[in-house]
Specification:
This protein is mainly β. It has a single domain, classed as Beta Barrel (Lipocalin). The chain is about 15% helix and about 45% strand. The protein contains two helices and eleven strands, in the order H-H-E-E-E-E-E-E-E-E-E-E-E. The strands form two sheets. An eight-stranded antiparallel barrel has the order 1-3-4-5-6-9-10-11. Strands 7-8 form a two-stranded antiparallel ribbon. A hairpin with a 4-residue loop joins strand 10 and strand 11. The N and C termini lie far apart (about 45 Å).
């Protein structure tokens, strides 16, 4: 009985230590890459914790091309051209950098060549945060159709 209690306590310590992102998940059997590889639909934007109403919806598909391991990000905003970029994890997969292929630095109101902190990465939720000298920006995505 004592061995079961010690093993349970050890497992609890391991699982609580696995939390990598500020807002979760605490534990996942899926790799960060497999969770990121998805079609994400814009859900909510906040500037300094105040919700910003956006008139257009946006979807971003994060792909991993198997043969070359090139990471492609294809974003679509109604009324604008598609946005084509590459993406990569940084800081032990705690941050995300999206770099435009055409050299631009904005996608609508969002800075896109900067490093965004991943605060939540689940199968159906992606939350990103960026802080500059003046503001903190948060963008929340959900998987398309969820």
């Amino acid at each position: 009985m004592r061995k079961i209690i010690i093993a349970s306590f050890g497992l609890l310590l391991v699982l609580t230590a696995c939390k990598k992102y500020e807002d979760g998940p605490g534990f996942s059997l899926r790799s960060k890459l497999s969770r990121m590889h998805n079609v994400w639909e814009f859900d909510e934007a906040l500037i300094d914790d105040v919700v910003v109403e956006l008139s257009d919806s946006m979807t971003c598909e994060f792909l991993l091309l198997d043969v070359t391991l090139t990471r492609i990000c294809d974003c679509t905003i109604p009324g604008l051209d598609n946005y084509d970029a590459t993406w990569k994890f940084e800081d032990s997969k705690e941050s995300l950098t999206v770099s435009p292929r055409d050299g631009s630095s904005r996608l609508g109101m969002f800075l896109i060549s900067d490093k965004w902190t991943i605060t939540k990465l689940k199968k159906k939720e992606l939350w990103l945060k960026y802080t500059d000298a003046l503001n903190t920006y948060r963008i929340k995505y959900k998987t398309l159709g969820s």
